[in-house]
Amino acid sequence: MMARVPFTRRSLIKAGLVVPAVAVVDACSSSKSKPPLPTATPSASASASATPATTSITTLDQTLLRGAPGTSGFVQLVTGAGEPHLTRTDLGVAAKAGRETSRSALLTFSHLTDMHVVDAQSPARVEFLDRADDATPNGILTAAYRPHEFLTAHVADAMAATVRSIGPGPVSKQKPSFAISTGDAVDNCQQNELRWMIDLLDGGAMVRADSGDVSKWEGVADSDPTYYDVHYWHPDGPPAGKTADNATAKYGFPRVPGLLDAVRQPFTATGL
After folding, report:
1. CA–CA separation, 183 vs 115, rounded Å?
2. pTM over 0.90
């Protein structure tokens, strides 16, 4: 938020202040500049034959595919073969032979979109609206909650690091002249989210994707026994005496102890 205010996330929601928001988050990764995140403990339903996805420069080298779902449905990403460029001839005349040696590159740039950096502890988050669509899988409110949205700052940093590492384009043979970001950069239109986004793209700044009380996680993913709710993924597991959350019990989500503490640690942004 733009300023610290004397109320908690839960007291604000309880008071009835609801600010619409939509959270769209991409898959997660990490860079060498940040502290290592804890290793997930695979659930019993996770596919034992899945090969963990590894980093590559472009999709010419390899692709990321859906692995085989576990018995409860949780799917891990696996690596697949690269995809070659295809020559489009349906939009114009046939491609001429020898064009690879005669063409000249005009401009090379990188494009990032829909990065959705999220302050997942903000009292403006409306994850509870997702519950309204529990009975309708294709309802309009299912984007109100994403189990992994607290990783978005690390995803953005990994994207910037990847763009920075690509070097000359595989076809143009030019290094990108600039990068352009389109679509939703931040999720709640909050000053702190925008500051994180700018610092992540600029690089060099210390980014701490945390808000409120920096000594603990404050959000639906925590394991506070007073507020524990099985409708949200709790990577640290349930509090003593509580049943496992639905994400784990029904769909086979993994346990990742310490993840919520790790993502709140400051790290130096790689930048573009």
Report:
1. 8
2. no
